[in-house]
Amino acid sequence: MEENQNNLIAENSTSDEHFNGASSLSSLTLFLDRVGEVILSLNSIGLSWEPADSQNDDKTSCIRRENHAESTALIEFSDVYAAELADWGSVRQLTKCCFMHQDSEMYLFVVHAMQRSKTKESLWNLVEYTFGHRDQLVCQTLVKKIKLYLAKQIGRPKSLLVFVNPKSGKGNGQNIWRTVAPIFSRAKVRAQVTVTERAGHAFDLVSSMTNRQLISYDGIVAVGGDGLFNEILNGLLTSRFKTKFPPVPPDFMASPGDDPSASVLDPREINAGTQDGECSTAVEDDVEFSFPHEWFRFGLIPAGSTDAIVICTTGARDPITSALHIVLGKRICLDIAQVVKWKATMNSDIEPSVHYTASFVGYGFYGDVITESEKYRWMGPKRYDFAGTKVFLRHRSYEAEISYLDINSKKSDPDSNDDNLNGGRKSCQGLKRKSEKIICRANCEVCNTPFSGKMKSKWLRSRGRFLSVGAAVISCRNERAPDGLVADAHLADGLLHLILIRNCSHALYLWHLTNLAKKGGTPLDFKFVEHYKTPAFAFTSLGKEGVWNLDGEILRAHKLSAQVFRGLISLFANGPEV
Q1: In this protein, which residues make up the domain named DAGKc (predicted)?
Q2: Candidate list 33, 218, 226, 406, residue with the active-site label
């Protein structure tokens, strides 16, 4: 440890060692807390170390270095979010021949990074590496060099707008933010925090912001549940995303001034999501905000009742994991569905209302559950189980007609046929043939496959009595449904998963719900269940006006249509890793 700090100077290093293809720019001996004396190497990829006496270790020693995970390591800067000086302090060292520690006083610095859990790879843990050296200049120089490398990491946020819902889930929103706030502070991310005071507060603030105000941030973070996330999403899109209404079949109801075309374009190719290829860019005071946006992203720190979006995009329902995804600048594209509530008749004075969702919209059972649960808000998240049980026992079905765009009729469900128009009498019980599933993961090949342009499509129709009608943008995994509503739904493939549950017996419906609630279940492999992948659908109630569940919000609609925009927004996330 008596080496002069000149050994640290990167440009004069004579080391020819490499790790991950990068030359080692600096190498010196210092102390690592709970390990002892190590040789640290630093280069543009990251830092690595090994015990200083590793080559001379006595293999019969009672301390086997390889038994200590931190004694030898390689940490890439892509996993490091901060480095800071810690002044003078103690470093605990392992003795050579016993398990006791001996302390040494010296100047310290700390490297903050993430580490994947050994039991669940999608779960990221905080890890700190405390190094020590008796020369303060050595510590200062190392920290400076590490910060320079961190500054070169692409896509990391510098300023974020944060909304905290204090009442979401179990009411832990503010406590969760206080837990993760130090991560943002260490990473030098400025956070403008707003604690919401009422429903719609975040929507009002985001929708009223100017483009200039909005792009002064690198993104918006929601500390809450799926409801808060979608409130912010709608605040952003409703006032800025300019597009036509979803396509509808010719006999549905002509949308005002719109041609019900069945052609669907990829918004990533046209930078819009419009039907005619025009660019969707909100221009305000000469400041543009386009969709998809080049760098603006959404973040979500789970504090809700189900947190399906964060589970699907990070693989874990964990605030620390989500905070690390954000400060490390991870990026993943996400499909967004536009949902339009239409007026019931051509003579109605009610104008169509537009909504957006990143997860799910459901009718029948799903709408009844959310309506019933409103009566029991005092129960907290348990109200959904209680309301679900009551609605299940009622076993109410609804007569409706659903039209959807079939983009590949040759590969459509083998059990779907013209009998669907006659009430599906041939498909009301038993199981149907299973199909192969490709699960969405980090670096997903399906989501990363370029869109080929216009898709040939035609309208198909399903009519009858349904227990539920649902459209999932993502798999909607949660603790009650570990595989989600649709296990093989993807984050950015440009398709909705339309799920129609035809009227069936109590026992069969319970069988379906039981499969939905277990890992590895097959809830879609029943003949009374219809599952279609489609870019757009239209719904008409053949009875009274129905109730839809739009991400936990009640939407009453006699007629409704929806379309999906591929990769319309980006999230601070990496995708599930397992």
Answers
A1: 155-343
A2: 226
